[in-house]
């Protein structure tokens, strides 16, 4: 890992390619993260988690979490590809908000308080996205979010 990170990532991929992996994915992630190899860890996890299994939810969360802290634009791209569905959406929403990805945070929030807190930053949101989202939210949520937007301007 230390002398050639990319070859280390390829080797890690070979360890988990079969139905019965030779090593636990979480342990491999730990090794990558001990060396602060976020890019290689991301590449490894994207391949290892490509089947989007419910049992891999914690690893999906960890992938998004590490990228939201180190490279938010990468996390944004991963979420934009809709590859994963079993991660902790509430936790990821909070991290998205902290990373300045308010649109992604709002896509994940379900609690009205969280939505109202984030939606008031209308200057950071695309207007067409906000209008579409208001249509998708439940009527009471959309109404409360609209009122919060109006009060903030």
UniProtKB/TrEMBL annotation:
Spans of repeat CHCR: 16-153
GO biological process: intracellular protein transport; receptor-mediated endocytosis; vesicle organization
Any one of the GO CC terms: clathrin-coated endocytic vesicle
InterPro entries: ARM-type_fold (IPR016024), CHCR (IPR055358), Clathrin_H-chain/VPS_repeat (IPR000547)
Single Gene Ontology MF annotation: clathrin light chain binding
PANTHER family tied to this protein: CLATHRIN HEAVY CHAIN, CLATHRIN HEAVY CHAIN RELATED
UniProt protein name: Clathrin heavy chain
Natural source organism: Caligus rogercresseyi (Sea louse)
